[in-house]
Amino acid sequence: METPIERARVAAEQLAAAGQAVTSRAVRQASGVKMAVAVDVARQWNEARGQEVEAPPVPEAVLLRIEGVWREAYSLAQDEFEAERTGWAAKIATAARELGEVTADLDDMEEKARKAGQEVDEARTRIAQAEAQAAAAAVDVDRITGELRAVQEQAATERTRADRAEARADAITAEAERLRAELHAVQEQAATERTRADRAEARADAIAVPRGKSRP
């Protein structure tokens, strides 16, 4: 793809081959490039041709015509330059505004990324703490489980001892009841024997008294 300068140079060659004057206006019309490019290419082409062929002095009328053409070309170029400068100024202002917005968005994203990174670090810290607590809790659970198992075994042992003691207490209670019953029976038997003895003694006394009276 040809550049604007290349198109302008081709147009200048074609104008010269056709016997036409290579002016900035003619180059611009033939190539469709901007006036500034056409002026520069026409000047360079004419300077190069001037070095190749010794041209006679330019007539004053031609100079006046050239001056008019130059003024017109300069005016057109200046107008085009001002229009382009205004357009580029607007584009630059728009780009600057967009750049400011992008910069603000980037700053916001960086701040969000920083906060997100901080939250990730905090989450990792909490996870590490939770894992440490879980490990400690697991140790405590194992210890408590062992202690509970020991307590359960001790309780089972104590329960067995209590059952045995209760059985012995029941046996002792039963033996005591039996002995108490035997004692009660012995006491009743003793009371009966005592009653019998008292009666026998009374009878003996009753028998012994008359005998005493018959003696001198």
TrEMBL record:
User: Pfam families this protein is in?
Assistant: KfrA_N (PF11740)
Q: Does the keyword Nucleotide-binding apply?
A: no
Q: Keyword set for this entry?
A: Plasmid
Span list, region Disordered: 183-216
Is Zinc-finger among the key words of this record?
Answer: no
Q: Where is the KfrA N-terminal DNA-binding domain?
A: 7-111
> Where in the sequence does UniProt note compositional bias of the Basic and acidic residues kind?
183-204
In its UniProt entry, what is this protein called? KfrA N-terminal DNA-binding domain-containing protein
